[in-house]
């Protein structure tokens, strides 16, 4: 058994939901004797600063739509990440990736396509989790595919979705992005709260347990 397995979380988070999952998983792993590091990706691309420099968004619906074309063409953009943290010697890397327009958010894609990701992943095990309103599959598969393309060894993934069906969860999400708080109604319709469901920590703890076992 490794004396102290070293685990790194690499994640992007705009509204702190992915960050919350990272914190729960980190606590579990530290309690199990792992050394845990976190590298948060910052989205610094000026072209999208109009969307992501303020929360809540001033014109939520239009600003969210404006990300559709670049997401559709799988565009990458400028990001910042702590390279000193990436330089550590890790037994396992776990990616936390929110879904944007049915696929991996641009900051995470940009990282996974960078030389830094290639250096980090070569010959290393990695897992991933997705945070999204509903659409996790393509995102998780993309992180897996890009990680493997960098020489990583994929060990598994999971996902966390928000409450509500297709329409209700969308209305809740747009309402939240514009208001910055969960409101009971949007456009006159009753809506569920958006963001992680209250029981998300159960899934996060279980996934962290499985990561701990892999590195034990
Ligand atoms: C530009 C944009 C597009 C999004 N598109 C989708 C989507 O297609 N499907 C989905 O389930 N969630 C979508 N979401 C919701 C995000 O997945 C959700 O905001 C995110 O997981 C929250 O994580 P964070 O708080 O860590 O940023 C979108 C969010 C943004 C900002």
Provide tags for this entry.
single chain, 216 residues, alpha/beta, Rossmann fold, six-stranded mixed β-sheet, two-stranded antiparallel sheet, 10 helices, 10 strands, globular, binds flavin mononucleotide
Describe the protein in words.
The chain is of the alpha/beta class and 216 residues long. It has a single domain (6-215), classed as 3-Layer(aba) Sandwich (Rossmann fold), CATH 3.40.50.360. Helix content is 43%, strand content 22%. The protein is built from 10 helices and 10 strands. It has helices at 17-31, 49-52, 60-66, 68-72, 83-86, 106-112, 115-121, 137-149, 166-179, 200-215; strands at 6-11, 35-40, 42-43, 79-80, 92-100, 103-104, 125-132, 153-161, 185-186, 189-190. The strands form 3 sheets. Strands 1, 2, 5, 6, 7 and 8 form a 6-stranded mixed β-sheet that branches. Strands 3-4 form a two-stranded antiparallel ribbon. Helix 1 (17-31) packs across helix 10. It is globular, with a radius of gyration of 17 Å. The protein starts with 5 loop residues before the first strand and ends with a helix. Bound molecules: flavin mononucleotide.
